[in-house]
Amino acid sequence: MILKVVMTVIQLENVSKKYRTANGELIAVKDVNLSVENGEIFGIIGYSGAGKSTLIRLLNGLEQPTSGKVIVNSQEISSIKGSALRNARQKISMIFQHFNLLWSRTVEENISFPLEIAGVSKSERQKKVLELVELVGLKGREKAYPSQLSGGQKQRVGIARALANSPEVLLCDEATSALDPETTDSILDLLVDINEKLGLTVVLITHEMHVIRKICHRVAVMEAGQVVENGDVLQVFQSPQANVTKRFVSQITDTNERKESIGQIIKNYPSGTLVKLLFVGSSTGQPVISHLSRELNLDVNIVHGNISQTKSGPYGTLIVQLDGNKDNVQKAVAYMNEHGVKTEVIENAE
Amino acid sequence: MLNDLFPNVDWEKMWEATQETLYMTGVATVFTFVIGLALGILLFLTSPQQLWANKLVSWLTGSIVNIFRSIPFIILVILLIPFTKLLLGSIRGPNAALPALIIGAAPFYARMVLIALKEIDKGVIEAARSMGAKTSTIIGKVLIPESLPALVSGITVTAIALVGYTAMAGVIGAGGLGTLAFLDGFQRSQSDVTFVATILILVVVFVIQFIGDFITTKIDKR
Ligand SMILES: Nc1ncnc2c1ncn2[C@@H]1O[C@H](COP(=O)(O)OP(=O)(O)OP(=O)(O)O)[C@@H](O)[C@H]1O
Ligand SMILES: [Mg+2]
Q1: Which partner for A42 in A36, A320, B164, B181 could form a disulfide, CB atoms 3.0-4.6 Å apart?
Q2: CATH class, A8-252 region
Q3: Does the beta carbon of B53 lie under 8 angstroms from any beta carbon of chain A?
Q4: What is the value of pTM for the model shown?
């Protein structure tokens, strides 16, 4: 038996951050409790101004909390200073929305920068840079300046640079928000790749549910400085509690369904039984649908679908029209329930 | 041929004056660069939200820079006569002009350095901090390299201003082309001397501008 040891890498205890502004006190982060486990990809989602950046900056001490404790790699980041903090930061890397590369340095010099800070010898640096350039797929562009690279390539440099000192944690502040959808996907793939290959813990903030859906294991939803909901991505998708979460979830699911009302579907498919299937990952490895038609001799007509892939399997809804023997329709529903697909009979014709 | 065109010009003297101008400009530029850069960095780092954010130091440095920047150069030269005497034992010759030149130009350049540093993307400094960089590393490996084109074009402008200042410093007998144009040219009504001195000053200015522009474009990889 494999025993999976779960270790907490990041722990936030009652963390608050207040800013003094001209209009009085502003609470950017309010009483947040969170823990991130070793090797997971943890997403934080929220609308603009929710306090995501402030929260992530607390994790590497770029900001100090007004109250509460921030513990990363079993070090209390919120209480260390000077060289202890600087050394800790070398193991908590960060990538940025606008890449923040030094334009005066080439790709390899940019990647080498954190190694220079860490006092690594020149020959070691060259070796490491070569490895990293390869890892992020930038071979051949080592001598290019950032101005000669595309956004996606710049972020690859950012990632390589962030990995240079073999960090334990990678913080991503809207790392894909400045990229087009395709490039976003390739960068997300790279992050997953790194997460799996290096066992690195990734904390990622975004305002796009798509990003959470695609690569995160767990997610925290932020609103007005508070974490209003947090848990496994699928769980949060399946039964969103807070209103913000519901809005985010609807970003990637039943958006079409609302427009095209169920009533319309019923009108268009007057015969058989209309069943709404809710896929929530894990179980749907098996070809459930084909089983229905093959074994139960039903006509299965897909009427409406909205399935997206998450880290732990497909998630979404499918509305099907089942035509055939009534008993078999019953059996079909039972079969699907057994296989972890939630069902909801919308309309029984006849 | 040249002697027919410019009968009053003593070429030997003219060459000597050119050298003096170049000497004063060169030495003053080097010191101005160093002092102005240091002051500019101090101004930048002590400004609000920066690494050494400090209202008092920022205000003090800013005030000193502004005061010296506002004093007309010719007045500054006169004000500094006792100081120069104390420092060099004399108020004649190219070296005597240096204190005034440097004190006049460094605050001017410090302002330009501040503007150049403010142009740096805040995110880049933050990235360096997130990697665990010390402030000295940030100064040496981020602030200066990232603002270098602006620093170079700033020192070019300053050096050109210094050429003008050296001419004015002629009133305290600093030497150089300015003094020559004033004493030999203007006061003795030898307009050919003034003319040649002017041409030479223009050549110096153009050469400085050319070198500055060349370096600026060469190092700008943005
Ligand atoms: N240095 C600061 N001084 C004062 N207020 C600040 C500061 N930094 C952030 N804030 C305020 O804190 C709140 C949260 O900001 P934050 O940048 O964390 O939001 P965010 O969720 O990252 O938003 P976005 O998606 O736009 O990046 C905002 O109201 C912001 O104005
Ligand atoms: Mg933000």
Answers
A1: A36
A2: alpha beta
A3: no
A4: 0.85
